Amino acid sequence: MLKLDDLQAILHTLVNNIDTGIHIINQDGLTILYNKKMAEIEGMNHSDVLGKNIPELFNFQKESESTLMSALQTGAVTKSSKQTYFNQKGQEITTINDTFPIYNSNKQIIGAIEVAKDITNLEQIIRDNILNKGDTKFTFDSIIGKSANFQEVIETSKRATRTASSILIVGETGTGKELFAQSIHNGSKRSSGPFISQNCAALPDSLIEGILFGTKKGAFTGSIERPGLFEQAEGGTILLDEINSLHPSLQAKLLRALQEKTIRRVGDTKDKKVDVRIIATINQDPIDAIANDQLRKDLYYRLSVVSLFIPPLRERKCDIPELSKFFIQKFNILFDLNIRGISNHVFSLFDAYDWPGNVRELEHIIEGAMNLIEPEEEIIDFPHLPLPFRQKTNSLEPSISEAMISDMFKGIDDDNLSLEDYMVNTEKKYLVKILEDHDYNISKAAKTLDISRQSLQYRLRKFNLK
Q1: Cα 416 from Cα 291, distance rounded (Å)
Q2: Which residues pair with 25 in a beta bridge?
Q3: Cβ distance 84 to 93 under 8 Å?
Q4: 162 φ, ψ to 5°?
Q5: pLDDT value at 86 more than 90
Q6: Among positive and negative, which fits the CA dihedral 430, 432, 438, 441?
């Protein structure tokens, strides 16, 4: 049987190594246990808290707002309650608490215990999302690229500024989807209204609903009267980035908001009318997202009144020189340098590289090179490039021909492919067959495949079928 000292050692180890704050006070309100995690959460020293009263250590608007003191004085039990207060240094702390009174055998309260989880940083993220309407600094003049496929997207975007219809922007990460969204907003009649951007993958589902649609005071423990992004964007534009990350139940609520032009705050019983233009982005083929149950089909059709398919950088490599010049000028100013250009060797590598990170990757590589270049040098050459990029491009061969690209999947032994490669190869073959059946008429082929013309073009670009 364990001795008392052993039990105390076990308890001490447990209390100080769990990832949850624990604070216990006695019947006089003095702290008798305060673990390491609680000290981290509240930014206090363990020795400064033990033996002290709550009002001496922390500031609440009212003493009754301390769930720990409330449990001691009234026997109140609180669960999953949000609490915001300040420590002695004036630092704001926000926690989710479970608080209980401690009773002796005579059913008298002899203390209280609080178990807390820190959401201070999360609360700041929410506040930033609600209050920061974004800096819409981009216009169509900011968009760089003269390639035919890219110019087609720009022209379609400019035409979309004339209406308030929903827009779905499809493009890989780093292609500039938000740049297009801001340009459309600034070119429309809504330019004087707010532009609010929210990444749907940045926050958990339990919080994103309140952020989008707002909350009603008393809807849940700790909730306050707070407008959501739809109300904040009244008369303007809201950008929903990575829409496929939104939970299906929230996608259904978003669909209703689009159709009815009304929203309902969490916990409310009344609808509010909103006048907001929705621009959504997705970094994968929306048809694939629907097939994988990541995007509701009805929401896709409602959002894609206007669909923009932004080509990746590997499909518009003729724009690399102009993009490179722009980034060099940008970092010349920031770093006080005088770089005039890029060597032919580096340009040949840029042309042969596949650019999985797209324009954003090009910008980062040039920024990295300009951090390594000597002040007296004026040309970015291979030794200046970041090491990971040099390693990836050191063995690159010249670009293969278009004929080779078109035929690259022919003659492959399907028996030796992985399931994923087999599916991709089969899809390629089927697309080519349908195109051949219709003499390469995109519209007729898309109708046979029961997909939109833009979706077919997106897949042809995706598989490098020209």
Answers
A1: 26
A2: 31, 112
A3: yes
A4: -80, -15
A5: no
A6: positive
Share of the chain above pLDDT 90, in %: 44
Q: Please tell me the distance from the alpha carbon of residue 260 to that of residue 348, in angstroms, as a whole number.
A: 53
> Which DSSP string do the residues of 453-464 spell out, in sequence order?
HHHHHHHHHHTT
Neighbours of 92 (CB within 10 A): 12
Q: Considering only CA atoms, which of 283, 280, 317, 281 is closest in space to residue 172? A: 283
Give kind and range of the element (H or E) at residue 173: none
Crossing angle between the packed helical segments 419-437 and 442-449, to the nearest 10 degrees:
130
Between CA 320 and CA 309 the distance in angstroms is 19
Residue 68 CB neighbour total at 10 angstroms: 25
Per residue in 211-233, pLDDT (tens digit) is 898 888 766 655 567 888 999 99
Residue range 145-188, pLDDT digits in tens: 999 999 999 999 999 999 999 999 999 999 999 999 999 999 99
| Rounded-to-integer distance, Cα 87 and Cα 218, Å | 26
- Please choose, from the candidates 227, 232, 246, 239, the residue with its C-alpha nearest in 3D space to the C-alpha of residue 194: 232
- In this structure, what token pair is assigned to residue 406? 């078109």
Coil, helix or strand for 97? strand
Question: What is the distance between the alpha carbons of residues 335 and 333, in angstroms, rounded to a whole number?
Answer: 6
- State which amino acid sits at residue 341: G
For position 397, what pLDDT does the model report?
47
Q: What angle do CA 305, 308, 310 make, to 5 degrees?
A: 165
> Residue 66: is it exposed, middle or buried by C-beta count within 10 angstroms (0-12/13-18/19+)?
buried
* Torsion sign, CA atoms 381, 383, 385, 389: positive
Q: In this structure, what token pair is assigned to residue 243?
A: 């829409």
Helix (H), strand (E) at residue 285: none
pLDDT for res 421: 67
Split at pLDDT 50, 70, 90, the class of 440 is: confident
Show Cβ contacts of residue 148 under 8 Å, excluding neighbours closer than 6 positions: none
Q: In terms of C-beta density within 10 A (0-12 exposed, 13-18 middle, 19 or more buried), how is residue 326 classed?
A: middle
Residue 22's contacts (CB-CB under 8 Å, 6 or more residues apart) are: 15, 33, 34, 35, 37, 38, 113, 114, 115, 116
Residue with tokens 């009234």: 74
253 residue type, one letter: K
**CB-side exposure of 454: number of CA atoms within 13 Å?**
19
d(CA 137, CA 135): 6
The angle subtended at Cα 107 by Cα 102 and Cα 113, nearest 5°, is 5
82 neighbors 119 (Cβ within 8 angstroms): yes
Residue with tokens 């003095």: 30
CA 394 – CA 236 distance, rounded (Å): 48
Token couple for 438: 């219709």
Query: pTM for the complete prediction?
Result: 0.60
Q: How far apart are CA 145 and CA 326, in angstroms?
A: 11
Residue with tokens 């940008």: 330
